[in-house]
Amino acid sequence: MLVVDGHPLLREAITARLRSMGAGTVHEAASVAEARARAQANGPCDLAILDLGLPDGSGLDLVTELRQLGWNRLVVLASSDDPYAVRSAFQAGAQAYLLKSASPAVVTDGVKRVLDGGVYADPTVAPLLATGTRVPGTDNTPRELSAREVEVLQLVADGQSNKEIGEALNLSALTVKSHLSRIGRKLGTGDRAQMVALAMRAGVIR
C-alpha cells in the first residue's frame, strides 16, 4: 500500500492503522514527487491513500496520474469538506473521500469498502454529494447538472473559449456549444457570465 501525506505524524498514524488491518508492505511519501518515484518503483499497489494538499503540488493531479497508471483503489484523505473538492476527487478517479477529522472506525470502514471494490464517502460529506450538482436557476428552482456540464462550466469560469474547452475535454466545439445550450435551458439563462455566477453561488464550481 502507499500513503501520501506531508505530515509525518498523520502518515505514521495511517500506516499503523493499515498494518493493524493486516496490510503487508506500506510505502510512505511526503510529496507528489516522492509519490511518483514510489509509484514507478513499486508499480500499482493494492491501495493508495492520498492527501490533496501536498507541499509540491495537487493531490488531485496525483489521483489522475495513478489512475492512468493502473492504480484501481485510491482513497483521498483531506481536511476540506468543500463540495467542489469532494466531487473533483471522485471525478479524478478516487473511490473514497475521507476527512482527516474522521474517527479511526470511519477510516477503517472506508478502506475496507474500497478494498472490497466499493465506493465510500465520509458520512459528513455524503449529503454534499447528493446535492452537489444542483444549481438553482433564475427561477430559484434547483436544476441537476451532469458531471460533464459541471466540467464545461468550470472551464467557462476559467475564461476558456468553446474551442479551448473542446480541446481540454476532447470534444468538438459544436458539442461544447450544445452542452452550454442545455445548461442555459436548465438554468434559465443563455448568458455565460450568469451561468457561471449561479453555479459558483451553489458551490458547484469555483
From TrEMBL:
SUPFAM superfamilies the record matches: C-terminal effector domain of the bipartite response regulators, CheY-like
Name of one Pfam family that matches: GerE
Domain HTH luxR-type per the UniProt entry, residue ranges: 138-203
CDD domains on file: LuxR_C_like, REC_NarL-like
Residue intervals of the Response regulatory domain: 1-115
Region forming the signal peptide: none
UniProt KW Transcription keyword: yes
Keyword Cell inner membrane: no
Modified residues (4-aspartylphosphate): D51
Keywords: DNA-binding, Phosphoprotein, Transcription, Transcription regulation
Protein name from the UniProt record: Response regulator transcription factor
Organism, scientific name: Pseudonocardia xishanensis
